[in-house]
Amino acid sequence: MTTSFLTYLEAKRTVDDSALDRRVLDQFTSALSSRGEPVRVVELGVGVGAMLSRLIEWDVLPPRVSYRGVDIDPSCIVRARERVPERLESAGYTVGAPRSVCDETVADGVPKATTFVAQSSPSSDGGTATDIEITLEVADAFTLEDDADAVIAAAFLDIVDLESALAAIESLLAPDGLCYAPITYNGSTAFTPRDPLDETIETQYHHHMDEVRPAGGSRAGSAVLESVADRPWSLLAAGGGDWVVSPTAGGYPHREQAVVSHVLETMADALAAVSSNDLSAASRIPEERRRRWFERRRTQLEAGTLGYVAHNLDVVARVP
Ligand SMILES: C[S@@+](CC[C@H](N)C(=O)[O-])C[C@H]1O[C@@H](n2cnc3c(N)ncnc32)[C@H](O)[C@@H]1O
Fold it and tell me: Contact, 45 vs 112, CB < 8 A?
């Protein structure tokens, strides 16, 4: 994966922090805390470990957890192995040395799976000590085996085949296990200031997600709700996990300009791969007009005047 993708994953952490629906998260963590400890969590598409670090920093996991984060991309796991311990140490955790779980390596000699322990002492105000064993592993979510209390799939179900992913999640979960799927894209990408070409650009972007990209979909969030209803799963909560990046007089918060930049370039690549023959007459635009739309948006981004809003859904459900 490119450096810019890793930069994007790191930069979007604060966008996700604001986006996550706290009611859905509360449902997930309170259901998780009623399970016997140590609680086993598997995260699919863990990226650079942002969700894992967040849940620990926000102190919403049970005190004793065994957390297995997997990603198919070795460069994500290499970066997660650097970033997660850094962040947990900054949050006051004592982080043990990592060790390889097995002798297996993947590309460039990267260990397939490493594990370390993060611990915190009881706080003076009566808080409990925590003991979290974290395994970061290069693996395909679709070939895993586990017996987990919870599977987390953040910003993941919109880029993979949904039915296969839900079947994989079901097979990874113990009876009554939980599936937490926040930040699943659901059909809207908007920019400010508005531009007359926005609607056509968005239609083409969604066409790419639905018809050109090998998997995923532009309405994956709604599709998750439908699929959960079609299965013998119980929906515990659902809510909006919308991304909002708004420049202020002081510029973009944190590193969020990089998020909008990555989204724009992803859209530019996507639209370049769409054949206008496959679009309705109303959705076609001359290449030159499309190129100028991207130029306008990049100029606004540089000037700190481009806002970005994407609609996502957060869902938590329980399997039988
Ligand atoms: C959009 S990113 C989200 C990363 C992270 N969950 C986050 O929210 O920051 C999707 C991640 O899924 C990973 N991924 C895609 N297909 C996968 C698969 N079959 N198995 C495991 N990981 C996969 C990608 O490498 C990428 O890191």
Answer: no
- Rounded Cα distance, 174 and 166, in Å: 14
Question: Under CATH, domain 1-191+214-246+309-318 is a member of which superfamily?
Answer: Vaccinia Virus protein VP39 (3.40.50.150)
Query: What tens-digit pLDDT sequence spans the chain (320 residues)?
Result: 566 999 999 999 999 999 999 999 999 999 999 999 999 999 999 999 999 999 999 999 999 999 999 999 999 999 999 999 999 999 999 999 999 998 999 988 999 999 999 999 887 677 788 999 999 999 999 999 999 999 999 999 999 999 999 999 999 999 999 999 999 999 999 999 999 999 999 999 999 999 999 999 999 999 999 999 999 999 999 999 999 999 998 899 999 999 999 999 999 999 999 988 888 888 899 999 999 999 999 999 999 999 999 999 999 999 99
CA of 222 to the centre of ligand 1 (A): 20
5 pocket-lining for ligand 1 (C-beta < 6 Å): no
The three-state (H, E, C) secondary structure of 224-241, written as one string: HHHHHHHCCCEEEEEEEC
Entry pTM:
0.97
Helices (H) and strands (E) in the chain, counts: 10, 11
141 lines ligand 1 (CB under 6 A): yes
Find the 158 Cα to ligand 1 centroid distance in Å. 10
